[in-house]
Amino acid sequence: MTTTPSSSRKCDLISFRGFYSRKYFHDFHSRREYLQQILTQNMKTLELMKAHEVESREQALRDEEQRQLCSLKQLGGRLHHLVSTKSVDGVYNGIVTRNYKIGDMRVEDYLRQMKRINNRD
């Protein structure tokens, strides 16, 4: 099979098309730069997501603590009869329950404080 000028020209044309498409359509360097930009943007997004996650967790903890304090205030006002008197120890001032605490305060002291606050209202 002999190569005719037309078949050689076709081969050159195909080679040129391959070169042209590799250079302008499938450029390795521009693709690598594009992937690097995506990686950089991804890292920024991950940092923002982590910061948002930490902020959301802290907010959830604050909300939960606020809800618990509100619940304790309501409960403290209704449990005033469990506080110690001069003659009788209260439920939370016994040997076993003496060290029960709400935050930094003993339960007995907390109930007394809630009793005083509710009597003012």
Descriptive report:
This protein has a two-stranded antiparallel ribbon with strand order 1-2. It has helices spanning about 5-25, 30-80, 105-120; strands at about 100, 105. The longest helix has about 50 residues, at about 30-80. It has 3 helices and 2 strands. The chain is rod-shaped. It has one domain. The chain is mainly alpha-helical. A hairpin with a 2-residue loop joins strand 1 and strand 2 (about 105).
Short note summarizing the structure:
With 121 residues, this protein is mainly alpha-helical.
Return the string of H and E elements. Answer: HHEEH
Provide the number of structural domains: 1
**In percent terms, what proportion of residues is strand?**
under 5%
Specify the number of helices: 3
Query: Could you describe the largest sheet, including whether it forms a barrel?
Result: 2 strands, antiparallel
Mass-distribution shape:
rod-shaped
- Give the strand order, joined by hyphens, for the main sheet: 1-2
User: Using DSSP, what is the number of strands?
Assistant: 2
Instruction: Tell me the radius of gyration.
Output: 38 Å
